């Protein structure tokens, strides 16, 4: 069964272009981990007026990217991205889960 989740994060203003560049060059081993975890669709959208990021995932199974913080590659990615966005003390992005309030099928 497919599951959908959404969450928001926040960039430090002025880092939009660099954030996009780093994601265009996402590490292949990170992509493999995400896909092996069951993430079949992962999209991130940017609201340029607020520097807020909206992330959306379609997942097969129970895990999602938010469950991968214990892996070395994700911790390395967080450290790599920490200078661009609001983060927690462990360098993970400050992330707020967004509940689904409407679906049109």
From TrEMBL:
Top-level taxon in the UniProt lineage: Bacteria
UniProt-listed Enzyme Commission number(s): 5.1.3.32
Keywords carried by this UniProt record: Carbohydrate metabolism, Cytoplasm, Isomerase, Rhamnose metabolism
InterPro entries reported for this sequence: Dimeric_a/b-barrel, L-rhamnose_mutarotase, Rham/fucose_mutarotase
Keyword check for Isomerase: yes
Chain ranges passing through the membrane: none
EC top class, as a word: isomerase
Protein name per its UniProtKB record: L-rhamnose mutarotase
Gene behind the chain: rhaM
